[in-house]
From TrEMBL:
Family annotation (NCBIfam families): NrdG2
Lineage of producing organism: Bacteria, Pseudomonadati, Pseudomonadota, Betaproteobacteria, Burkholderiales
Pfam families: Radical_SAM (PF04055)
Top-level taxon in the UniProt lineage: Bacteria
Protein name, as recorded: 7-carboxy-7-deazaguanine synthase
Length: 264
């Protein structure tokens, strides 16, 4: 990594003079470039960092965040855009990612752990503590696969995005795993009980869940106490137009159910 450099006539390590009327900035680490994939295999116990996005305005609504992607997920959702993150592999060195995040502290609001499934990483609690010590708020994207692991890190999280895959009838068809709705609903119960700031969201296509079933699911979530719900139109790839659009009637019926409803 290359740290930013500057020229000065002052001896190395000597304090620099501050001109009158200027505010002295708190000492901060030199800027580090975003981490790059490692050239050599990392130790087996290394965190499975699959990627780092230096900044994002969409992964935590209202926050400017860096995103750390964890490789590894036991589900095989057929619409997944991050299939390269389904298999556990450490492609980036956490030490490089941590140095970059330290250099951006005070310029970014938050760090979001995404995936893959970030709760699949045994060292996630340690990673979260690292970024909290830098002063960041911490967000998590999860499909709700590991309720006990969510409970373990809940107190250290400021926001959670919980993926809802389908209604009870369609969950296993989406995830490719049996009984997959049960842990997700257990995680939802935890979030509601903890009073955490969170969003439920679903990737929607009428071939997987027709509008009538989507409306029934939205009504169920609202009655359980979900206040923020997002419907994400399925796309062939990120940035492409939606495969199908929700009807105006469906949008009009869902919006009043939640304090914050988004169709994106």
């Amino acid at each position: 990594m290359n740290a930013a450099s500057s020229s000065s006539n002052a001896p190395e390590g000597a304090p620099r003079a501050t001109e009158p009327g200027t505010r002295r900035l708190a000492a901060r680490p030199a800027y580090c470039a975003p981490p790059q994939p490692v050239a050599q295999a990392l130790p087996r116990h290394a965190p499975a960092i699959g990627g780092v996005v230096p900044f994002s305005t969409v992964d935590w609504p209202g926050q400017l965040a860096a995103v750390v992607f964890i490789s590894g997920c036991p589900w095989r959702c057929h619409y997944c855009h991050n299939t390269e993150l389904q298999t556990r592999a450490a492609r980036y060195d956490w030490r490089d990612a941590r140095a970059f995040l330290e250099s951006r502290a005070g310029l970014l609001d938050a760090v979001v752990f995404s995936g893959g499934e970030p709760l699949s990483e045994p060292r996630l609690p340690s990673l979260i503590r690292d970024v909290r010590r830098m002063g960041y708020r911490v967000g998590l994207h999860t499909a709700g696969i590991y309720p006990l692991r969510l409970a373990d890190v809940m107190r250290h999280l400021d926001w959670i995005g919980l993926d809802i895959k389908a209604d009870a009838q369609g969950y296993d068809d989406i995830t490719g795993r049996r009984d997959s709705q049960r842990p997700a609903m257990a995680c939802l119960t935890q979030l509601l009980s903890a009073g955490k700031d969170f969003e439920c969201r679903i990737t929607w296509h009428p071939d997987w869940l027709d509008e009538a079933r989507l409306l029934a699911l939205a009504d169920t979530l609202a009655h359980r106490g979900v206040r923020r719900f997002a419907v994400q139109a399925a796309r062939a790839s990120p940035g492409t137009p939606p495969a199908r659009a929700l009807s105006a009637q469906a949008l009009a019926r869902m919006k009043p159910l939640f304090d914050d409803f988004v169709y994106r």
